[in-house]
Amino acid sequence: MIAAIGFGALIGILLGLLGGGGSILAVPALVYGAGLTLAAAVPTSLLVVGISSATALIPRLRAGLVRWRIAGIVGGTGAAAAFAGAAVNRLLDPRLVLAGFAALMVVAGWRMLIGTDDSGGDCALPGGGVNWRGCLPKSIAAGLAVGFLTGLFGVGGGFLIIPALVLLLGLTMPAAVATSLVIIVVNSAAGFIAHAGDAAVDYRVAAAFTVAAVAGSLVAGRIAGRLPTRRLQRAFAWLVFAVAGFVAIQVLM
What we know:
By secondary structure, the chain is an all-alpha fold. Helix content is 77%, strand content 0%. It has 10 helices and no strands. Helix 1 packs antiparallel against helix 2.
């Protein structure tokens, strides 16, 4: 239980600071820290990440940073794809899923290291308009990819959503972080529903993990603007690499 509280607080802090990324640690933390089976860890992770992301979203809502139409398109297509990812998850050996998860963590860490820049795009033109002919297919593609991974691995997908929103769709980083949190909430809810019958969720562990994550995200959300985000991202990337190596070793053993 102590491990669940500690890991939950860490994930909540990362969600509050970075708007995503912390969820990539939730499944390994629940499997190797809290002792849950993979089948129970995936829905528990989605429950925790969804509630924590909703909490981290609150201060961004007040600032009016969410791009609701883009969130609706990416989140809606992602919710549908999450059920497909959950179906594939049931067909695979748990060791294979964890191996794939370790590989995904390496990709996430790499994305954190190279960072993202505000580079413009169809969904945020310099004049303030939106070119929906280009924006719509990109939004749908991003939603399908992230939603499938949400259902397959039990992650919120912020580490993929934020680069997609900035580099593909052209949102500014503050808008991308706020919009990604809405998408994570939608995807996590869909993924949880898709996995809910796979294994009994230990709601004591889930509650402890969630309360700690919510508290961490609230505290971190208040100080996020005062900290150097790039340094945090780089430090987090190396932490993800370390956890990925640990998961890979456990799978091989």
